[in-house]
Amino acid sequence: MTMKLKEVSIGLLVLALAVFLLIFLIPEGVPQPGRLREGQLSPRFWPLVATSILFLSGLVLTAMAWFEKEQATPSSAAREGGDEELPLKNAILGLIVGFILLSGYYWVMTRVGMVVASAIGIVLLGYAYGECRWKVLVTVALLLPVALYLFFVYVAGIPIPDPLARAVFRAIF
Amino acid sequence: MIIDNFAQGFELFFSWGNILAILVGVLVGIVFGAIPGLTGTMAVALVLPFTFSLAPVTGILLLVGVYKGAVYGGSIPAILIKTPGTPGGACTVMDGYPLARQGKAGKALNMALYSSACADFISNLALIFMAGFIAAFALRFGPPEFFALMCFSLTIIAGVSGNSLMKGLASAALGLLLASVGLDIIFGTPRFAFGEVELTAGINFIPILIGLFAMPEIINQFTKRYRVVTRIAEAANARVSWQEFKGSLRSILRGSLIGVVLGAIPGIGGAPAAFVSYGAAQRASKNADNFGKGELEGVAASEAGNNGVCGATMIPLLSLGVPGDVITAVILGAFMIHGLTPGPLLFQENIDIVYAIFCGILLSSVFMVMWGKLGIRVFSRIADIPNTILFPAVLVLCVFGAYAVNSNPFDVLVMFLVGILGFAMLKGNIPPAPFLIAFVLGPMLENNLRRALQMSNGDYSILLRNEITIFFLALTVLSLILITVRNLKRWRRRTAEKRDDAPLTN
Q1: Structural domain of residue A112, as residue ranges?
Q2: For each of chain B's 506 residues, which pLDDT tens digit applies?
Q3: A99 with A154, same domain?
Q4: Is B239 a domain residue?
Q5: CA separation for the pair B50, A93 (Å, rounded)
Q6: Domains in chain A: how many in total?
Q7: A162: CB partners within 8 A, 6+ apart
Q8: Whose CB among A83, A122, B178, B291 lies 3.0–4.6 Å from A141's, allowing a Cys bridge?
Q9: Structural domains of chain B, count
Q10: Are strands A84-85 and B182-183 parallel, antiparallel or unpaired?
């Protein structure tokens, strides 16, 4: 995808979002009290102001990208140093793996518990990122969630949902 | 008179118990502030029960120490892992994290510490010497004045939009829209809730903060292959030279004053002060173009604004008995538990206690530097941990932090979803800072505009009712003119450069 096409797409996406807000999200999502006329006191006033800004910026972005002959600045990804960018195909594959892992993390967290989910999450995420030092990964996976659990539950007094950790630490303390 | 009061206060203050209370308080505050999701309010509320058995001065100083430590502590994860520990630390991310990526984590942490301590100290002096004057000024702020101030604050968006003002505006509009989720402030009707109970309560700031800054980096790492990078020797690079400090001193002083003024106005808080200070520093700096890319002055300005609020929020509390924010509301509770009622009577009946607290507050800035210097040696090593270990660990920290806000997994879900939005913005070169600024300031702007118009039955002339509103609205117009002129100049320069670069054709 050329830079010009990318910028035009961003502008159009912003425009599409603004139109979606105007024709669906605001009318359906922001009920208007019956006795009230449209105006600055209406609950819809502010969302409409924000949507207008979104619409206008989308319009200008599209127009600027459309009439610009070449892109002056490279993308942030190209500017960044450090880690090496993967080829597009591999990057998309990496993103799919990432979304599956993050969704899985959330799913396990809400059903099994935060400590167990976090321990598994660290190992799998670390592996997906390319970490091969298993000893280091497993050590971090065991120590960090447990340390955070102990801190949140016993120091900060915030209950962390994890039946397994609760049973273990109740037995210890 | 004031010297006598100080002498009395010092006599009451000077005990190992009081000194230890501040020492421990600042440390506890830094630890809580450095953990994303654990706010200063939470830390103060947790420590409150421990003060019941302490002497009034000791207990209150413990809480004040926690408060001050937490405000500074928020800058540590903001710089190191792009995850602000507290809302006020959000602005520090913009230059702190790029500095850490350049191998200058220690330098950024040191600058954050020095500017925080300076601003905190100035704020304390303002509390001691100008409490009455500032409280009287702050009390003149009603909805129209707040609205005018917020309008001016929003002009920072232009400064943090990078190369594309339009993308910055789009980002800000998204922030405004997300901030409008929840109950309407005037009618109590739901907005964008679609029948979901969690959405009716509105979206919390912390999951947005974490999702917007930390999550995109974590997701983006899936599109990269890890490469071991030999960083520039940090030890030699970690200190802030006198020249560097001097270069940022004006921004620190300006940020401290902004923090003092905004902190004294009940209900504003550290985050807007940090953004206003950052914007002002950027407008005045010779290195304006480097802001957002790793400018030390940017870190100094945002931390000065954020910490300048600390002492000032105590001004309305001590002089009028009005808490400036949630933390001072908890501290007000501590005063009452110990049989003290903040306000004019406190100055008449318990002047020794007031000045003993002042002595302790001044000392807290010194302890902040002490703990900060000790901590930086340890913290700056975090930047050397390889991303393959650091990012999974940061993710777990973010999940625990987002969950801790309301003990609700919904906040973790919000964090993940905002993370995906943030990743899309990263790929589209859409700056996240305007989104965050609009999310913070948007509700204040809307609520105050609507309240002002309600007061005047829809008459807009209320927005020009006194010199405060006129001053801030005039500043807003002036800023908009300057922004337009600057953008036009930049556009012309870019067009001219392109024309020069174009190949010659016959």
Answers
A1: 86-172
A2: 678 888 888 888 889 999 999 999 999 999 888 887 777 877 888 788 788 888 889 999 999 999 999 889 888 888 988 888 777 788 898 899 899 888 888 899 999 999 999 999 999 998 888 776 777 777 778 889 888 888 887 887 877 777 788 898 999 999 999 999 999 888 888 999 888 888 898 888 888 888 888 898 889 888 877 655 545 445 446 788 899 999 999 999 999 999 988 888 877 777 888 988 998 898 888 888 888 888 999 999 999 999 998 888 888 888 877 777 778 888 888 888 888 888 777 877 888 888 899 999 999 999 999 999 988 877 777 767 888 888 899 899 889 988 888 888 999 999 999 999 999 999 988 988 889 888 888 888 888 888 888 888 888 889 888 888 999 899 889 888 888 787 777 777 777 776 666 554 44
A3: yes
A4: no
A5: 52
A6: 2
A7: A112, A113, A114, A115, A116, A149
A8: A122
A9: 1
A10: unpaired
Please indicate, yes or no, if residue B157 is contained in any of the structural domains: yes
Whether residue A62 is found in the same domain as residue A95 = no
B59 within domain boundaries = yes
C-beta contacts of B193-196 below 8 A and 24+ residues apart: B193/A29, B194/A28, B194/A29
Cα B193 from chain centroid? 28
Residues 129-148 of A with CB under 8 A from B: 129-131, 136-137, 140, 144-145, 148
- Tell me if ipTM is over 0.95: no
3-state helix, strand, coil in chain A (%, to 5): 75, 0, 25
**One domain, residues A72 and A92:** no
Beta strands in B153-292, from DSSP E residues, in sequence order: 182-183, 190-191, 224-225
Closest-approach residue (CA) in chain A for B458: A40
- Tell which A residues from 51 to 80 touch B, by Cβ distance under 8 Å: 51, 53-54, 56-58, 60-61, 64, 69-70, 72-73, 75-77
Domain of residue B77: give its range: 2-228+245-494
52-91 in B: which are within 8 Å (CB) of A?
Answer: none
Per-residue three-class SS string for A51-64: HHHHHHHHHHHHHH
Nearest chain B residue to A17 by CA: give it. Answer: B174
| Position B502 in a domain | no
CB B296 within 8 A of CB B110: no
Residue that has been written with the tokens 């292959």 in this structure: B225
Chain B hits for A157, Cβ within 8 Å? 46
Answer left, alpha or beta for residue B407, where phi above 0 means left and psi between -120 and 50 means alpha: left
Tokens linked to B10 = 């010092």
Which pairs count as long-range contacts for B493-499, CB under 8 Å and 24+ apart, including other chains?
A: B494/A72, B497/A72, B498/A69, B498/A70, B498/A72
| Residues A14, A20, A22, A23, Cα dihedral to 10° | 160
